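Give me the fold.
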Amino acid sequence: MPALPMPDLLPALPEIVLACAAMALLLLGVFRGERSTRLVSWLSVAVLMAVLVLSAMFQGEKHVGFYGMFITDRFAVFVNVLVLIGSAVTIIIALHYNEEHGLARFEFPVLVLLATTGMMVMVSADDLITLYLGFELQSLALYVVASFDRDSTRSTEAGLKYFILGALASGMMLYGISLIYGFAGTTGFTGLAHLFGAAGGPVPSNGLIIGIVFVSVGLAFKVSAVPFHMWTPDVYEGAPTPVTAFFSVAPKIAALALFVRYLIGSFSGLIAEWQQIIVFLSGASMVLGAFAGIAQRNIKRLMAYSSIGHVGYALIGLAAGGAEGIRGVLVYLAIYLIMNLGTWAVILCMRREGQMLEGIADLSGLGRTRPGLALALGIFLFALAGIPPTAGFFAKLYIFLAAIDAHLVGLAVLGVVTSVVGAFYYLRIVKVMYFDEPLVTFDRPLAPELRAVLFVAAVLTLFFIVYPDPLMGGAQAAAASLFAR
């Protein structure tokens, strides 16, 4: 029997470097003990930035490796840059929090690196098997960091809930993969695209459609789309705040990108079959995120419902199905990353005598006691609500325009209506900050890392309108590469 040729490792070079660096930093932490936590953290940030530069070197042609199971193209590079930035900023903003709360252990940045490796594998998956491997590599690390505060009952409960529901979603996804393979005869995205990627191909069987639905359910769980969102509020509230910030950005961005690649890269010719699923997920997520957030008094739970709503908006672009819709998704994810990281940086500043505060009422009078912090949070809240001229307005604008072009006017109208409803609970926080009497005074001074993140995020969010071309051009090229089969 002739030997198989060696797989082409070049497309997976950034992921290989990241995995090897995580193992090396793990050994460094083991030999040096807990005193190496800050060193391992900053080395992890340096590794993530080095991998970002390495990924950016693949901006040219599409590269396929591992016998066609792994692909690096402009779409993967664009999303990987967002994931790497989100992971690096998470490690930075977690430094002070972990040290204050007795969580300064070197395992945290290593787990973030391993989760990021899984996310990058997901984004570059060109086969259902690779999709599942990346999904599980990410999930196993996330289960641990969710319960990283092992002395906290809430954190342990959050990790256990996430693990049980995540295992259920993983099983459903694996069952869907087996159905697709059984009825299509291949697990490769390219093979599936040749069979079903163009209009006029073979009529899909019911078993294949069911398989597509089951895999979509697993991905919907990971992005916390309704009705698979049930874990989100409890995990967001119970997990340590930096971990919650991480959950709200990098894993969500990677899972949404995988959702896009899975449906567009494999089943673009079956859009009539899966579009109705995405329309339902999108509409239900926007409605629940808008109305359920109104009753929240804990800011972490409020951000959980906010993230559910934003997933609904991003899915509008996927439902549109064309290059403009995918461009809208990518622009939305980039802007969502910035404004969300800024918001979580403010939440991490909500400390009194070293203890974290989580009540929205604790922000009362912040405009008088900490005007700079209140201004930054106000900018992020206006952006999350989609109010011009912040970046959040343009994120929603491109999504809604793509939906109208795809004749999904009803979904676009629903998005506008839920944006107005959701603006209520964002603007209520602004009212609390500037018109209510102060109840508490937050600790001073702010950690230098948090100040830097706040400043950069606020500037990018507020002045995106001045120079949007790099982001728009990059998203356009990334979306076009996804359709260049």
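The chain has a mean pLDDT of 87.
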